[in-house]
Amino acid sequence: MMARELHPVLAPEAPPETPAPPSAGRPSRPWLVPLLVVVLLTQMAVAMVTTALQQTPTIDEPVYVATATDYLHEHEIRYNPEHPPLGKLVIGVGMALADPDYDPSFSGDQGQVGRHLLYESGNDPWRVMLWARLPVVALTLAFALVVFAFARELAGPAGGLVALALYTFSPDVIAHGSLATLDVPTAGFLLTSVWLLWRARQRPYPYVPLAGVAAGAALATKMSALPAVPVLLALAAWSLWRHNPTARRKALLGAGVVAVVAVAVVWLSYLVVDPRLRWSPQQHVPVVHGLRALMVDLMPFPEAYRDGMRVQFGFENHPWQGFLFGRLYTGSLWYYLPAALLVKTPLGMLALWAAGAVAVVTVRQLRPAAPYLLVPTAVLLGAAMTGSRDFGTRYAVFVPMFLAVAAAGVLRLRWRWAGAVAGALVLFVAVSSARTFPLYLPYSNEAFGGPAETHLRLHDSNVDWGQDLGRLADRLRERYPGERIWLVYKGSGVPSYYGIEASDPRRVPVAEVRGLMVVSDSSVAKATGRLAELIDSSRPIDQVGHSITIYRR
Questions:
Q1: Is 434 exposed, middle or buried (0-12, 13-18, 19+ CB in 10 A)?
Q2: pLDDT tens digits for 376-406?
């Protein structure tokens, strides 16, 4: 009896920096939270698979699909060195199942190889692209569980559901999670690494080595993860120091473990493709100088990775064109990504992000999570804002992932109506997202006119990435049979494969262009000279997928 009386006094208390769940005790409906998780994941899966089924190849996808197929057949790094192999190995799982016909002897650049695989080798591009996209869809759903688990540890089951709902209804995450591209996998691996480091505060093993694996996976998928490396190493040291403040050497050792494991994962991704590490680039590798050259030379990665960095630096030196709020410009704008996120994020989500960030900083129990959620987001966004390619919010798709977790902190605010307001905002997000189904790529929120007006403010992967060529073919066949078609298409698809027989209006005198003129909205945004004259003298009569405009001449 005495032992029973003393037990509550002797029980160890949770460390003061660990956020406690907002509710105590056993839930009255233990099945409710798992059920809601399944519902949210199911709706996201339906949205992504439907999108994957209905979209034609976007600009980047054929390159990744062909490179993944080349890995499977040739076991050699030849194409697309600007991105490491892991993301394409993920896509390669789908390609192994699809087993398309592939001609490794075909000579051409990586874009031509992609088109040859999809349209000139006897394959069905709809089937090939679906199989290529499904592994990324599955990975995107797996990252949803990381979001839920991370947020639940901060703010309990209700907070986990808030974060999961924001993630699963995010138009940007759905749009890019349903494509055979690398942006969502990279961001998801980074979030996973940060979550594991957060858990390492209580149990360094196995979470520190696992965080290194996730960090290495991000680095082995896309080089845009490199700016996060110093942050991840600092968080590793911080987590181990918080676990044992007297063991400073162990804190530094933890950072070293993350670094060594991450580098090993990058090497492993190349070795999986080719154990002999052969490197025969099929494209020009530019020479870099100065600090950039020194940084590349010091990287502890395979030569193919370092050449990929040189290619990326070459891209950064190119004078790309951008388009923002109706303005066409050459170069980049430092505020482009924040402005684009403002347009393409649901209003309720923006409000919850802001409130969640405030909660993480001001609520004492949540404050330890601030370095894990806000610092990586700020560093990655700052790095992306310095880039030369103002092509879309996909370069910042980590923002809706990290800030979805932070938004769970709203439920920890000492405000009577916090839960009700958070629920209402989540519902607003869900409705806004559902209204754009299945056209997630051109989404913009209600304050900026919705998806139908995104092309007036943004271009490229924000709205028109070549994804609606199949829808255009259906529209022309159903509403405009037999009409003369003039086409300016921005994308990787082959119009004739989908039954679109068209001519380029820019190659004939303006007076000869009569009938229907079809123009991708990114081309409309960047129109100059002959094309601008043609558009100004034409009448818009139809839109396809909010990414292609049909004009009558």
A1: exposed
A2: 999 999 999 999 999 999 999 999 999 999 9
